[in-house]
Amino acid sequence: MAEQSTTLRTVLDDLVTQNLLQPEAQAQIARAVTRTSEPAPTPWFVSALIAISAWISVIPFITFLVLLKVLDSASSLIIVGLLLIIGTSLLHYFKKNSLFLKQLALALNLTGQVLFIVGIGSETDIETAALTTWFLEIVLISFYRDSILRFISVLIATVAALVLLERFSIHPGIHVLIVLLAVGVVWYWIVEARHLTDEMMKTLYQPLGYSFVVALQMVLLLSILPEVEFIPSTHWWYSTVGLTGILLALEYHLLHTNEIMIFSPQSYAIFAATVLMGILLYQSPGIIAAIIILLLGFQRGNRVLMGLALVFLTVFLSSYYYYLNITLLMKSITLISAGLMLLGLRLIMRHLSSISVAVEGNDPLGREIR
Amino acid sequence: MTPIHPLDSPATPDRLYHLARENHFTYHALEYALRRIGTVPDPGAWRRFIDNMLLLLGSALLLVGIIFFFAYNWADMNRFAKFGVLEAGVLGMALFASLRRGINRLSSQTALLAAAVLLGALLAVYGQVYQTGADNFSLFLTWAILIIPWVLISGFPPLWLLLLVLLNLSLILYWEQVISPPNSDKRTDLFLLLFLLNGVATVAWEYAYTQGAAWLRDHWLRVILFGATLTALIIPTLQAILYLGTAWHANPWFFVAVASYVAVTVLALWYYRYRRHDLLLLTSCLLGVLIVITTLVGKLLPNNEILTWLILALVIIGQAALATKWLLQTANKWQQEAQ
Lengths: 370, 339
What we know:
The structure holds two protein chains of two kinds. Chain A is mainly α. Chain A is 75% helix and 0% strand. In chain A, helix 5 runs antiparallel to helix 6 and helix 11 runs parallel beside helix 13. The radius of gyration of chain A is 25 Å and the shape is flat. Chain B is mainly α. Chain B is built from twelve helices and no strands. Chains A and B meet through helix 1, helix 2, helix 3, helix 5 and helix 9 of A and helix 1, helix 2, helix 3, helix 11 and helix 12 of B.
């Protein structure tokens, strides 16, 4: 159980006892904490404020350029777009300390991206524009060291990937994209501590981690839009199979890291409930994805991830029942059954927990008591 | 006051992340430290989480299922059976809540929430069966009034939220169905009433919090209350700006809306900056200011000038930069004060 006000000294002493820290490192850490004027981390809602204002300002910027009559052809769109992208990248690189210039650079960079992509699309075709977008976003993620732009770049690249799949009629590819995004989400968050201590990943993992979460849910929103003919509704179970597999793997990992026996009744109950859920919700991969993110959020103590997961879980669950092609009466019976099943599962889990404590000498999750 | 030794400061996740970024911790050390302070949950925390999720999700599905069942208005079921099922549900849930070991347990509070929701279904069925002909607002208002005792004793934020939603719905429906003022397509007065309702709720929440009500630690309810209050003011303020110079003489509420918005924003910026530290609510305030000022500048500048659009874009970026700078400075200041 976590203590309310654990001090740094207590944690460091524990780390030394566990041979995870050299005793002499404590003095270094004390000096680091003393001299530290570590800035408070930028909260997600402040980043959201910056991103929203940057996107809003794209509209008047483009209108200004249109009225200026510098955007009269596809090639002018490409040239102006490229100039803005290169110029803002340089501005961002050389004027790191000016908040106004940084945000101006972000807004103009997004304006440049819109102009460049539209220009390529007008000059060639949509497929080329989507491929170019992919290349552009990879370059920007690598060189433009800004968390918000990196976050937005992954979302733009995801939309470009969807466009490519649609244009090349590789519709089943969306399931591969979903599974890849889910693997990315799990990888980014499950080894968060490793990323934080890695030189390359420490600045990359957070924007990419959050953007993979949002991109995954964004793509899965297609599964609840009735008018989308992109993917026949009968095929969404491909994604459900992939996501259920990932959820099972995640559960296995969580049980293992918490030193809970895989071959315990509780573990069997968790795996069985997951498979059953995958079968029952075979047309709703979004619910499975939201559960994956919820578990990751709780595992990392990350309220933003949990909040995102709960919002999407509500959306996917509501749409699941809304679009069920059955009468209201049958829907109500399905909902009541599902609710009773979950409450029953809760009772079973509690019962199994008390058995393992009383009979097997294990703690409530089957962990051996040492 | 003697300054505390740096190692005796609280081991917060942010501090541990910062030390890890500065290469003071290995991957395993960071993970262990996060687990030690409870950020990464232990098996006990996982058990409680799964237990709570199953309880909340199961109860939610069950309740929605029951509402759907009665919305279907099953013709084969006679009125007594309908009333019987619902009344048994309300009574059962209320008894369950009262017989458990204390109302502060999540299962008891969830049962009370279920009883409150089922009471609404009971009132709806009453209206259906007896064709009372009453306006919809009276259903929601009666429902709200009847659940007030449960809301007061529960100390459960979702029940308070249900009460607030019901009161808002009652007000909107009363305005639409009973008052229904002519030539009031802008609904400025309705928004002001909604502002008053949600504003009173926000102030009550803040007051109760300062009195030490432990269950009010749930931050999300405050965000919802404040968001509703601010939104109810921003909409008429934007209307007032868009109708600047044209419909102001015909709608005196515009002035009230603008004056209230300015007063509430200034007060909230002061309160959440100096009295109660809340960066999220400060950000919400500043987002509102950004929207309002941008709309005002857009309205004041001539539409047909090329430069208008450039100025508008720069105004947005400038405001966002100023807001971000102030918010980050505020966060740093609070951090220093806490050390």
